[in-house]
Specification:
The structure holds two protein chains of two kinds.
Chain A (H helix, E strand, L loop, with lengths): L2 E11 L5 E11 L3 E5 L6 H9 L6 E6 L2 E2 L10 E4 L11 H11 L4 H14 L15 H13 L5 E5 L7 H18 L2 E6 L2 H7 L2 E6 L2 E6 L1 H6 L4 H6 L4 E10 L4 E5 L2 E5 L14 E6 L5 E3 L7 E12 L3 E7 L5 E7 L11 E6 L4 E4 L10 H6 L2
Helix pairs in contact in A: 2-3, 2-4
Chain B lengths: L6 H30 L14 H8 L3 H33 L3 H12 L6 H6 L2 H4 L4 H8 L13 H25 L3 H9 L4 H29 L3 H6 L6 H10 L3 H25 L3 H4 L1
The chains are: A alpha+beta, B mainly alpha.
The complex binds adenosine-5'-diphosphate (ADP) and magnesium ion.
């Protein structure tokens, strides 16, 4: 399939300041919902602005639908963008804001009117047309900004942290609306977020970014289950991590010696386990695979812990245990599962080796130590 | 709970300022209006009449005086806008370093440290018959005889431009520098070519600054009758006429002319501020 966006070794350094992008390469396919995820300051906005054409890149190449974008101004690109903070025009009504792009494209009044009406219906903002941007709520501003960016029907719609500037309840509602709008209208949606929940649930594919570098590109399940780096693993969800040394491998399993005993895991999907024998690695298992067992259940991995506390989330329960004074281990169970334990009670945690794996790289960023990433400073 | 003083205290703080305005602005203005309706200047035995107004509006000189007064001020305001807007734009969007910007603003202020008379007379060695401009014109063989550059309407415009430009540049600069760059970026990604970005976003959002600048220059030049009387080659303006009548103690007629001047200025200001929402200036 044709690539809509092709970025090759894109680099950007702000004057006298940090390297915001350090040779980033990736491709986006037609109709993909592509999510750029990473901590604040990692270069997400920089990347989106470069694709939109409102920021120049220093080196590398950028192609949109096969066309080199060097020196192509933003108004000649088949790209639209919803900026961080929405940037609604304060001197124009909601209607004028939404209609702006079509007016710039020289469409006639009737067509603009029809399209604006379609957009307001699609995004449920009918009746606000004559208001000014400062006369509507944050959630409405968010949808007006989306309508304004979407109305020109670009091949690529860039959304810079569209979920960050409204309260949590509206975030989820807007996220679901985005997914539906994408299904209805199509095209590439490229969205940045620092929130793992939105990232995982919306993306067809995602790119995990850190300090201007790519940690991993893949589908949400690929990254969640087979992370290439400990940073990527941590960024997409809760994780139990133990530092250890690879002791032994078999054709389908690896054994890692940690300070809590030797644990068994499956082979990592993204590296060759044979090269890792004798190396320091992170042994990782997600909390939903960890179970409390009071009798010997014959599982592959067992760990003796003390019950610490729990967090109730309505549909699930997060249990926190201590393996030693510093090391916390988490287990996530359905809220319907019966669980009772006294604080300080000694219990045994188990998990199947097929649900655990190892990661040898802490991060793509140089100079990060794996033990440091596991235990903190 | 906040420890804000009760509401009335807030207004008490305004009192000194209000008193100054009342004594030095409102009362004299009211007196001017009252005097303009007097037959003779006398508060002990006043006879009120509209005679002065009839005389003013039927005088054959009045149309010329009004056209000169408001025409020249309007022209000066527009010329200042045409020169000042690009300067403010350049300062905001082309000069990235805040230090350089502040330096330029300081340099624009320098002429105001020089006495008004000196500043005005300094035009003689520039525009006079043996001044720099004439020297250059002859040096490059553009003219063979010195031309008279002083004492014309354009001299007045140039001098007014010099003394008023800052009042135009500054409010526009403030308005421009308050524009969020992302509004410009939003317009660009929404398919605006550069000239439409300028008109739709930059110019429209700077309109409050433009209006304030126009107001400053317009009011400033309207009240200035000395510069026209010195440099404009003897054109009659309303302020000068007021001064002449007042100097001859024909106070009621001077007051009539003053009242007309103030009313027309107010009307112009009201129209200007109708164009933009004054609230946008302060929000
Ligand atoms: N205009 C700028 N000038 C200098 N540095 C900048 C500028 N914009 C962003 N940066 C820096 O570049 C890095 C990446 O910024 P950004 O792309 O905004 O990150 P994100 O959107 O992921 O939070 C940050 O370290 C930030 O401080
Ligand atoms: Mg950002």
């Amino acid at each position: 399939m044709a690539k809509v966006i092709e970025a090759r070794k894109l680099a950007k350094r702000y004057k006298g300041a940090v390297e915001a992008l350090r040779e980033i390469s990736f491709e986006v396919d037609e109709n993909e919902f592509f999510i750029i995820m990473g901590p604040s300051g990692c270069g997400k906005s920089t990347l989106l602005r470069i694709i939109a054409g409102i920021l120049d890149y220093d080196s590398g190449e950028l192609y949109i639908k096969g066309e080199d974008m060097k020196n192509v101004p933003p108004h000649r690109r088949d790209v639209s963008m919803m900026l961080e903070n929405f940037a609604l025009f304060p001197h124009m009504t909601v209607y004028e804001n939404i209609a702006f792009g079509l007016r710039m494209l020289g469409k006639d009044k009737d067509e603009i009117d029809r399209e604006v009406r379609k957009m307001t219906r699609l995004l449920h903002i009918e009746g606000l047309e004559e208001r000014m941007p400062n006369e509507i709520s944050g959630g409405q501003r968010q949808r007006v900004a989306l309508a304004r960016a979407l109305i020109i029907r670009p091949s690529v719609l860039l959304l810079d942290e569209p979920l960050s500037h409204v309260d949590y309840r509206l975030q989820r509602k807007f996220a679901e609306m985005l997914k539906e709008v994408h299904r209805e209208i199509g095209g590439v949606f490229m969205l940045t977020t620092h929130d793992q929940e939105h990232g995982l649930s919306l993306a067809d594919r995602m790119l995990i970014m850190n300090s201007g570098l790519v940690e991993q590109i893949g589908t949400p399940t690929e990254i969640y289950n087979d992370p290439q780096t400990l940073f990527a693993a941590r960024f997409v969800g809760e994780l139990n991590t133990f530092a250890g040394t690879v002791e032994e491998i078999s054709p389908d399993a690896v054994w890692v010696k940690t300070e809590f005993g030797t644990f068994k895991a499956r082979h990592p999907a993204t590296e060759n386990a044979r090269d890792l024998v004798g190396r320091r690695v992170a042994y990782i298992v997600r909390p939903e695979h960890v179970r409390v067992s009071r009798e010997d259940s014959g599982q592959d991995n067992r760990l003796s812990v003390y019950f610490n506390t729990y967090y109730y989330f309505g549909h699930f329960l997060e249990l926190v245990f201590s393996a030693d004074a510093q090391t916390r281990v988490k287990s996530v169970i359905s809220a319907n599962e019966p669980f009772t334990a006294k604080v300080g009670e000694q219990l045994t945690l188990t998990w199947p080796y097929t649900k655990a794996t190892i990661v040898s790289k802490p991060s793509v960023v140089e100079g990060v130590d794996i033990e440091e990433l596991i235990y903190g400073k | 709970m906040s420890t804000r003083p009760p509401k009335i205290m807030n207004y008490i703080l305004l009192l000194p300022g209000l008193l100054v305005i009342a004594f030095f602005l409102v009362i004299p203005l009211l007196l001017t209006v009252v005097i303009s309706f007097m037959q003779e200047f006398s508060f002990t035995n006043p006879i009120f009449t509209v005679e002065n107004y009839i005389e003013f509006f039927t005088s054959p000189q009045t149309p010329t005086i009004l056209a000169n007064t408001f025409g020249m001020s309007l022209l000066a305001s527009l010329v200042a806008l045409l020169v000042g807007y690009p300067a403010a734009y350049f300062m905001t969007f082309r000069i990235k370093s805040i230090k350089t910007r502040n330096l330029i603003i300081s340099l624009l202020l320098v002429p105001f440290l020089i006495d008004w008379n000196v500043r005005t007379i300094a035009w003689i060695p520039i525009l006079g018959e043996s001044g720099i401009v004439n020297y250059l014109l002859q040096y490059f063989n553009i003219v063979h005889q010195p031309v008279s550059l002083l004492f014309s309407r354009w001299t007045l415009i140039i001098i007014w431009l010099q003394s008023n430009l800052l009042f135009m540049i500054f409010p526009i600069y403030l308005a421009l520098s308050r524009i969020d760059p992302d509004l410009i970026n939003a317009a660009r990604v929404l398919k605006s070519p550069p000239h439409r970005v300028f008109y739709e976003i930059i110019f429209k959002l700077s309109l409050p600054g433009v209006i304030v600048g126009l107001t400053f220059v317009f009011v400033n030049t309207l009240g200035d009758y000395i510069t026209p009387s010195l440099w404009a080659g003897g054109i009659q303006v309303l302020g000068l006429s007021v001064a002449n009548f007042a100097a001859n103690f024909v106070w009621p007629y001077a007051a009539t002319q003053s009242t007309v001047l103030i009313l027309i200025s107010l009307a112009v200001l009201v129209i200007l501020f109708k164009i933009v929402d004054i609230k946008k200036l302060v929000e």
